[in-house]
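If you are new to this repository, start here. Below is one unmodified record pulled from the training split, so you can see the exact layout before writing a loader.
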Amino acid sequence: MAPFDIAALFPSKHSSTTPRTVFVNQPLPDHFYDHKRRPLKVHVYPTNQVISSKYTILTFLPRNLLEQFRRIANIFFLFIAILQFFPEFSTISPGLVLIPIIVVLSITAIKDAYEDIKRHQSDRRVNHSAVRVVSGPAWSNPNFSGKKSRTFVRGIVPKPNLSKPDPEAPLPSDPDIEYDQSDHKAPDVYWRKILWEDIRVGDFVKIMNNESIPADVLICATSEDENVAFVETKNLDGETNLKSRNASPALADLHTAQDCASSLNPFVVDCDRPDTNMYRLNAAIIRNGQRSPVDTQMVLLRGTVLRNTDWAIGLVLFTGVDTKIVLNSGGTPSKRSRVERQINPQVLVNLALLALMAIVCGIVDSVIENQQYLEGAPWLYDDDTSYDNPSINGLITWAFALITFQNVVPISLYISIEVVKSCQALFIYFDYDIFYKKTNQPTLARSYNLSDDLGKFHFFYHACRRCLMCHQNSMVFRECSIGGAVYHGDPEEEEDLDVKKLATSGEQKASHDSSLGSSGPSTAASPTMDPDVISPPATVKLSTGVLRHFSDQQLSQDLARAVNAEPGSENEAHARALNGFFSVLALCHTVLTATDPETGAIEYKAQSPDEAALVQAAADVGFVFRGRDREILLLQTPFSTDVERYELLDILDFTSVRKRMSIIVRKLDGNDSRYFLLTKGADSVIFERLKSGGDELKQTTERDLDNFASAGLRTLTLAYKVIPEDEYERWSEQYHEASTSLEDREAKVEAVNDEMERDLRLLGATAIEDRLQDGVPETIADLKLAGIKVWVATGDKLETAIAIGYSTNLIAEDSNIIVIRDGDVGPTVYEQMVRAVEEFFPDSDILEKAADVAISDSGLYQMGRLNVSIPSIVGHGNGTRPGGYVLVIDGTALGHALSDDQTKRLLLNLGTQCEGVICCRVSPLQKALVVKLVKEGLRVMTLAIGDGANDVSMIQAADVGVGIAGEEGLQAVNSSDYAIAQVSCPPMECVASDCIFVGQFRFLKRLLLVHGHWSYARNGTMVVNFFYKNIVAVGVLWWFQIYCGWSSAYAFEYTYLLFWNTFWTVAPVLAIGLFDRIVDADVLMAFPELYRFGRERTWFTLKLFFIYLIDGVIQSVSIFFIITYTYFTPTTLTDGYSLQLYDYSTTMVFTAVVAVSLYNGLNTNVWTGWVFFAILLGIALLWIYTAVYNSISPGWFVTDVYGDNPFLFGSAYFWLCQPLCVAIAILPRYLYRAWLTGYAPGDLETLRYIRKTQPDLDMATALRRDHDRTASRTSLSRRRVSSRMSRPISVSSLPPAFALGTPGTNYSVDTLPYDLCRAPTSRADMCTGARTVYRGFDFVTEEGGVAMRRMQSNLSERRQSSRHLPLNGGRKQPMKRKSSLHIFASLRRKKPPPVPSKDS
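And here is the target side for that same chain:
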């Protein structure tokens, strides 16, 4: 049957396609109604109910039947059942004929219904979450919403005690009612808790801190100053740093429920039609005749989470299927495993064989009747009527032959597959090695029918760092290099970080409830207070996302000596470096502070854990950032008893292009009021801006950066600059002119910034560990060794995605990174990819298909190299680099690449040449498109794993989707086929809104390499053995037709054929599907390369099917003819009577059952007690059944074999034929297996032999020992140090000792020095042509966010008001300049008498 999309026949609710107008506190206009005052359909908006399940009450039966009848065999069996309702073809009761097909359909339907019920229950948990809305008699929402869909079942989740809005006044004790403090005396308006699914367009909602956003909401007001709200958008774009959003200025006065419901506050919101673009929203507020614009900065999207904000009030604009996250998620697909899809062609082959057999029987029977009728055969008397003649009888014989030989297509095959796959799902559930013991969370199979697909993937997609990080993107400040000295940090105690973090969750919960220190004395030390009376805080809490405090005994000693260092002493230089380094960390950021009102402890609120870890590390060593009040920064340092105050003058913001952030501050100190530029960023941009000189410090820091990057740490370089006052005044004027320019503003501002960020003084570098889950790098490495291409589709920035690639082993230490980005300016995306192919894959045929496309020279460039003061290890020669290639492409470039077929093909071909592909800054829809690009372009198996709502479309597009229970819900799990266990809070804390969930990514290795491998091998072998055993039975019946006039008569007594697939032969094939093991689990885990057998479809191909088919035919020949000619003697009975048909045909049944059972046993690799039981079960049942059935007297019911036991079992031929025929039947397979094991063993046979002879041998340990002893590789041993096991190395890149070798010699990576193998990665940017050495830089912050713009606007206002006033209050103080290390105030302010600082 031609494939068709069943989901298209049962479409779900469609999103609105027209613009909308939301009315608030005013009635709808007349044109919104028809002539009967019913609302027009275009103005009836969908409900907020979101359903990820497949079926409803009405669609279950037709849709499930359509899905099941995609199996050709089911259509055939239905046809055969209907055929037997006609008297001419009836074999047994017509009603009984339907029982097998009904049982098959029912069992499958029950399984599908159970899976969908679980999805409905998960949907119910989401749709029945609680949210606060404005309610009461004084409030009315005039906008209309549609009806909710009916659920498949009520579910087991109890409905919360929440009610819909009730216009009548509530009881004062109603727990669902909340009042604003100022509205407590106005009982007609209040906040009521309702279900998410009951939210309507036009409702006002109040979201509290750490709550998920239930719909797309326009922000009206928030608890923070300037109406700013912070949201976590990782479920949308994959980024873990917080984003800032601001309320609409036109609605900023709506702070209470009374304000929202007041008839004095009517307004209208005009919105564009719902759009899939996550970063675009066009709307406008019309209030009091004024029109105010609305963009995405003013909207909270469904799927995001409110963070670090006590509350936010918003107006619902889009609900349910109209929300952006749902628009980017496809409908639940109907997935079938590849094995199941491949069964259809094999069933077609069997059906063709069946049709041929039936045609032969019909034709030959008609010919024989014609011939014998003319000869006057008495049984053909009057055989010339219209309804009884040789032609009609031949047609009837053809139809009856379809019934006789119907077992050639086994109906029990599908039931057996369903049973086996269900048991395999249970094996996954009960596997203790992928069972998270701390929380008793198993790995769940949500789609039982895809287990064998886990064993043959070619491409693996994972979403982003959230799938890999420990504790949802947690950071540890590991090391730092300061003034050439490296501080490694004290060794971390061996403790479970999960438990450690969870133990502090209660403490952090309190901090979540405290307000941000954006301003005001309640959250930070007030700058108006006397700094001398501000005491240091008792503690500084661990910030969210930071795992541990930083401590270093050597650093503590150096700081103690620095505090007491005398000016001019040998310790002075390093003391000033320490002071400057940690001062930059503590001041150059956008972090806010919150103070716990109970404990007084400070906690840092950062947009990203990166910034929090840096500021936290500074506080841990004594440089405590105490908060800010607009432009005043407060810093407590060990070098001063007072709180130091700095005036923030300018912020040079971080962008992905600049790769650095700088601030300009002025010290507010009577003795020192110098200006400083404090900078942090990537080493590649900091080093090129350093002042000449200090080469020794540069080289030392570079060496430290290399060591940090080699250890997988993320690096950041710090520098500073002392600015003369007159230089700052001149630059400030230039910056003001550039920032107010109407033409090329961005370019002018960047030029002015670049001028200031020159002649920097290097301070040092930091190294942060982005903590991964246990086993993540090993899992990624082993998946690559298994031959699985790993592609990453993430919303993270390019630098972040590359950093995660290094941490996870996706990018090896010697890999080369090809960057394709932008596409709007410079070379087009197509041109960049063509250049990449020409540069790195010149011998490939990728460009042959694009040979007719001319590339203009205007957009190209001369590939250059950007050296950063270190020897390059990557030569310019094409294809001679020691490592493989990893393609990195950003979302903008990906959008261009997917826009036309030609560029799409080029991207696909280029990506498949690389070891891995990283797609960064991509939307949820782009993730799905990338999966479909490979899935449909290469027709290979794809696996996708994700944990957020933004991963749903990708999970659904892949052949198999794996969901990890995310921190903010079960969207990914609800849409997945397999759900990996998660770490969660203790049971007592699971009700908290900040409950932590982290998927165990390492479980994926065992899920694929063991369960996937086993399931595919078991199911494939079981299916071909199933076809084989039925061919044996049908073959015996076929050969019998030679002796019965081709009349389609049965050779066996009918019940033997009826129970052939039910009792006699089903157990051995089920044993293969359930208990067979190609090799043991530890061997599969130790040798990921064995996964190639699954990718190559070793155990289930059309060729293998024909081999088993021929085996069955050969065995049926030996069984039938040997027994037939043995029994064809004058008589086999001692009394001289003739032999009946069933006397010798029953011997064939016994022989066939024994031969089939032993043959299945030969195809079983591991014989356990269950296998022995299964092989003997059918044989034992056959003996018992025959003995009993032959003894049933006609008084019970009439049979043709009554009393046959003495004749059957008393015949010597019965006992002699069985061993002879069985031995002849299975001899070919036995000889083949013996030859394969003894003379031509493959990897699997070798490993099975080793396990058999050395059962106590640890394969993984033996592999490591062998790896240490020799570098030689076979199919069973390999090195893991590089991305490629062996490849040519450019002689120009070799050390002299190797370069002196024979020219043209190919050196393996395994023969290179260790230092060379660990050299930093080469990175080629195809957009700019620049080549750099990558050291793992990464820094996450929101570019152009509200928090940054607010700080810059405050500075801009100050600058505007004081541009023409003298600085420093009219005092002009001379700058103090001398030593490059004299960065801040005197180091000895604690020791009287004060030593005046030298002029700088």
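Two things worth knowing about this chain: The first strand starts at residue 20 and ends at 24. The chain has a mean pLDDT of 77.
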